[in-house]
Amino acid sequence: MNADGAAWEQRSVARVVSPVQPRKLAKVPFVELADGRLQGVVSSGSDIARVYVSSITAGTHAFNCSTNNNRPCGGLYGSPCKHLQALAGEAVLQYGLDQVARYLHVEVGDGADLMSCLNGRHEPTPGAMVFSRFLRHLSYLELPGTTGPIAEMHWFPATGAIR
Ligand SMILES: [Zn+2]
């Protein structure tokens, strides 16, 4: 290996906040604990061009799911849809159950499922802000290469693609 290669490799070890466990980015490309909500963007299972913005409010556990065009999710029949289930599952992988439960103010007993411990109702919540943040995160994909860490990229898995 030449000197350039070695230097490149050294720079490429910029520290990245790894998820607690690997996440399924294709299914839930964006998840965050922000604005007093667990919220994120969930891919449609059937339509590759459609995404849902799903959220669960801390404290009240009010939940909402709508398309990026602000159409209500058809799966919300009084209970959280599969997108919310997926969001919660991925949040637990990303942040760990303890942190998500603390953020949402929910007691999750040993071995219990996060979603089954929530007792909120459906409550429309504007999703546009979440979606625009998601798009901003995506725009980092188009940034020129950098050797410094970009905090917002932390939801990408560290691939360790060095060689
Ligand atoms: Zn949904």
H/E element order: HEEEEHHH
- Structural Rg: 18 Å
Bound ligands:
zinc ion
Distance between the termini: 11 Å
Q: Summarize the amount of helix as a percent range.
A: 25-40%
Strand content: 5-15%
**DSSP helix count?**
4
Q: What is the structural class?
A: alpha+beta
Tell me the total number of β-strands: 4
Overall average residue pLDDT: 81
Which sheet architecture does the biggest sheet show?
4 strands, antiparallel
Number of domains: 1
Which descriptor suits the 3D outline? globular
- Unreliable spans: none
Spatial ordering of strands, largest sheet: 1-2-3-4
Could you explain how this protein is built, in words?
- The chain is an alpha+beta fold and 163 residues long.
- The chain has one domain (20-138).
- It has helices spanning 3-11, 82-95, 97-104, 128-139; strands at residues 30-34, 37-43, 51-57, 63-67.
- A 4-stranded antiparallel β-sheet has the order 1-2-3-4, sandwiched between helices.
- Helix 2 packs across helix 3 (97-104).
- The radius of gyration is 18 Å and the shape is globular.
- The N and C termini lie close together (11 Å).
- The model has no long low-confidence stretch (mean pLDDT 81).
- Residues 52, 54, 65, 73, 75-76, 81, 83 line the site of zinc ion.
